[in-house]
Design a protein that fits this description.
This protein is an alpha/beta fold. It contains nine helices and 14 strands. The protein starts with a strand and ends with a strand.
């Protein structure tokens, strides 16, 4: 019988705060010991910005997405596929979790096309080939994926990490897509967490301006994953101690569950 697969998008404060990063790695180690199959897709925006500043390259954004020219793309790939990816792998390895770091370019995992000319080398995912992920998962490894895709010419494209993670969760028909965020979940107009949303409710809250800004790509990634075959999606607060294991192991009602 095929074991369930969980896809976790990891970023924000949960990655950049040392104590939260350690707690997140501890959570994953607990789940891995129980035999849970995991794929981690990570971000790395602050680290990219830091390198660009050191290189005297200006960071520019359009609709929350980084404008990516050739020089910026080189820095993005250096940070995501190198520094950040290997830091996550190392944190898991120290906890005796067998992790393998790859990017979306490896094994044809993510193929994309540049969509908005104003963004430059920012891609929209066109296809996902999960074969390499399945090989790693079947070998009892935790794949750690940097969100860089191959474009039509084979060159690299920068992919929003939420979008990449949702596409991978759909392709794997994951049991759970957990999007680790810097907020307690999707907030209503009252600023209280909405425990569950379906597609119609998401559309309504978008129209009302309640879901806006950086939350839009997060909920869209969840809905796209569900449309492609993922069974359940969750926007979870990565700043809350042990939120991942509390939710997945103990069943605590944390964050916002998104369903079809």
């Amino acid at each position: 019988m095929t074991r369930d697969t969980f896809v976790v998008k990891y970023g924000g404060h949960a990655m950049n705060d040392d104590a939260l990063a350690a707690a997140f790695a501890d959570d994953l180690a607990r789940l891995a010991v129980r035999g849970t199959r995991f794929v981690i897709v990570h971000g790395g925006g602050p680290q990219i910005t830091g390198l660009l500043e050191r290189l005297n390259i200006e960071s520019r954004f359009v609709d929350g997405l980084r404008v990516t020219d050739a020089a910026t793309m080189r820095a993005v790939e250096m940070v995501l596929c190198g520094e950040v990816n290997k830091a996550v792998v190392s944190a898991l390895s120290r906890r005796l979790v067998r992790a393998a770091g790859i990017s979306g370019r490896d094994g044809g995992l993510l193929r994309a096309e540049a969509g908005n000319p104003a963004l430059g080398l920012v891609g929209e995912v066109r296809s996902v080939d999960p074969s390499l992920l399945e090989c790693l998962l079947n070998g009892e490894f935790v794949p750690v994926v940097a969100p860089v895709a191959s474009g039509p010419d084979g060159g690299p494209l920068n992919i929003n990490a939420d979008t990449a993670a949702g596409a991978i969760a759909g392709a794997l028909r994951a049991a759970y897509f957990v999007l680790v965020s810097d907020v307690p979940g999707v907030l209503a107009a009252s600023k209280k967490v909405v425990p569950e949303l379906d597609r119609a409710a998401v559309a309504r809250l978008k129209d009302e301006g309640v879901i806006s800004g950086g939350m839009i790509p997060k909920v869209d990634a969840c809905l796209n994953a569900l449309s492609a075959g993922c069974r359940r999606a969750l926007v979870l607060d990565g700043r809350a101690p042990s939120s991942l294991s509390r939710c997945l192991l103990n069943g605590e009602p944390l964050g916002t569950v998104i369903v079809e």
